């Protein structure tokens, strides 16, 4: 919980920014830049020990905190910048904050019996297995702004005050968690989402009307495993499904293994689904086993559906199995100076993330795979001009991961934007 990962305090009132480097262009639009991220409510990450064993929070946990920078002009045309931050007051935040101490037991990483005990006690005390953190993404739809993390539904927020206005679930029609990265479909303007669960149904796709008032379509894709798929893609006609071997397994947990594990021997595939399709309509393309959390973009090119994302040989989350030396595992994984190949798990570089392209031929069912950024620079957290989502685009941006610093500190350290 240092540097990039250190928690910060809620500052209260909006604060004027009096110092900045460089100049803001004259024709730059007025508005607000807002983001969120995990920020533990009571300081650093928490762990617990009992007769059942030990469990700990992971680095992606922590209550969501919104950070907003407001770009405004005075009557003379001069720029006025201000900053405000605020916790996202989810339902579980409102339960825990008044107690002024950590209340939920960590329930993702740790000894199997400790995690099962945390499930039971959290549910009995608060009606939820874990906290609703709303700490991963901010998105807009139909003129409204929402914050989300994939263990709960989105919450609408007021951009001016950063106050949460309530949950967005279409009067209960959407009863699943909600992906952190929904996509607006080109032309129709509909919002495509999905939800993952630790129990059946494991993976559900939803299509929300362009005006944000109605759930137009919902489909259980009938997965036979609970995969931690972080993002969904869209093209003009299709939804794009990422199914990689990062799997929640309650049976494995009961048997003494980890709840969430990346199975390097497991299969990976990409599904192409008609916008209003169902499980039987998905065309599956099996690809080299890998982990892809984030998608740059997807689009149609003749008979092919092109998928571009950030691909690694294993998953940075949740890390090594419980009991392994976490620092050594991360240090070797981020040591990109060693060869990055099919056997990288045996030495180093298995957390190297490149921009990767899959070309999926809808007629021949063939797959062409290739790296677009080589093996010198590791990148993740991509984004593009949202007007080109689902369409052919030329430019994309991503965070460069500093391989040397990451290896030395045993955690991902972004260095710049590429």
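Q: What amino acid sequence fits the structure above?
A:
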């Amino acid at each position: 919980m240092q540097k990039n990962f250190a928690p910060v305090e809620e500052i209260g009132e909006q604060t004027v920014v009096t110092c900045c480097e460089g100049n803001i262009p004259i024709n730059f639009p007025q508005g607000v830049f807002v983001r969120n991220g995990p920020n533990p409510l009571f300081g650093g990450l928490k762990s617990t020990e009992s007769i059942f064993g030990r469990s700990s929070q992971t680095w992606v946990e922590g209550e969501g905190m919104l950070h907003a920078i407001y770009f405004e002009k005075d009557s003379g045309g001069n720029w006025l910048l201000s900053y405000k931050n605020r916790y996202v007051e989810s339902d579980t935040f409102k339960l825990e904050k008044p107690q002024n101490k950590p209340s939920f037991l960590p329930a993702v990483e740790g000894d199997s019996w400790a995690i099962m005990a945390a499930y039971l006690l959290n549910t009995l005390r608060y009606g939820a297995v874990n906290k609703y953190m709303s700490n991963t993404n901010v998105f807009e739809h139909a003129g409204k702004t929402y914050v989300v993390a994939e263990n709960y539904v989105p919450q609408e927020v007021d951009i001016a005050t950063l106050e949460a206005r309530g949950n967005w679930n279409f009067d209960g029609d959407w009863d699943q968690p909600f992906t952190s990265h929904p996509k607006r479909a080109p032309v129709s303007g509909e919002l495509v989402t999905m939800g993952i669960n630790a129990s059946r149904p494991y993976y559900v796709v939803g299509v929300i009307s362009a005006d944000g008032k109605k759930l137009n379509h919902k489909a259980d894709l009938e997965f036979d495993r609970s995969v931690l798929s972080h993002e969904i893609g869209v093209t003009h006609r299709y939804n794009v499904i990422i199914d990689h071997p990062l799997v929640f397994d309650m049976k494995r947990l009961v048997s003494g293994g980890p709840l969430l594990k990346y199975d390097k021997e497991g299969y990976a595939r990409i599904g192409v689904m008609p916008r209003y399709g169902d499980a039987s309509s998905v065309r599956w393309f099996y690809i080299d086993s890998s982990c892809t959390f984030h998608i740059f973009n997807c689009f149609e090119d003749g008979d092919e559906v092109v998928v571009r994302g950030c691909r690694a040989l294993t998953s940075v989350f949740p890390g090594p199995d419980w009991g392994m030396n976490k620092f050594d595992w991360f240090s070797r994984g981020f040591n990109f100076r060693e060869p990055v190949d099919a056997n990288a798990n045996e030495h180093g570089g298995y957390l190297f993330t490149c921009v990767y392209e899959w070309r999926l031929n809808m007629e021949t069912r063939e797959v062409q795979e290739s790296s677009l950024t080589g093996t010198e620079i590791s990148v993740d957290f991509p984004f593009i001009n949202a007007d080109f989502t689902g369409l052919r685009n030329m430019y994309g941006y991503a965070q460069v991961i500093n391989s040397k610093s990451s290896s030395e500190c045993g955690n991902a350290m972004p260095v710049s934007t590429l």
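Q: And what stands out in the fold?
A: The helical segments are 91-96, 112-126, 250-254, 326-333, 403-409.
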